[in-house]
Amino acid sequence: MKIGLSFSKCVKDIVEGTVDIDDVLVVVSGTRFDFTDSEAWMSIFDGYSQGGYSDPVWRGMDYDDVYKVVDLLWTSGKLHQPRNFGSYPMSGGLAKRIHWLEAIIDPMLSGLSESEKEAWDQYKFITGLSGKVVNT
Hints:
Structural class: alpha/beta
Strand content: 5-15%
Number of helices: 5
Distance between the termini: 16 Å
């Protein structure tokens, strides 16, 4: 499962088929808007497709394709806008370098067989050697 850190770039990846929307857990957006407000939505689309206030990440992309992806993210609850709650998502550092994180869902929650549990334990051990942390 993926966690997106950039609304515009993540939507672009989904529209272009680089990322499957079914693999998206959530997109944490620094962009704040009400998708049910058509004027607000058009302002967002224009800004990202024409570069009105940001890099034109959606330049040349089909309006209907972008709309369908954003609509699906919105209606499925996969679009989180921290600014609606007085918080600001990270906009520098990691978010500047990458716009997708991989969420590893603890497989112990799904009732694994003994061999699957052993493989999971080996995975945690190997990632620990590489300096990565896997919490369970």
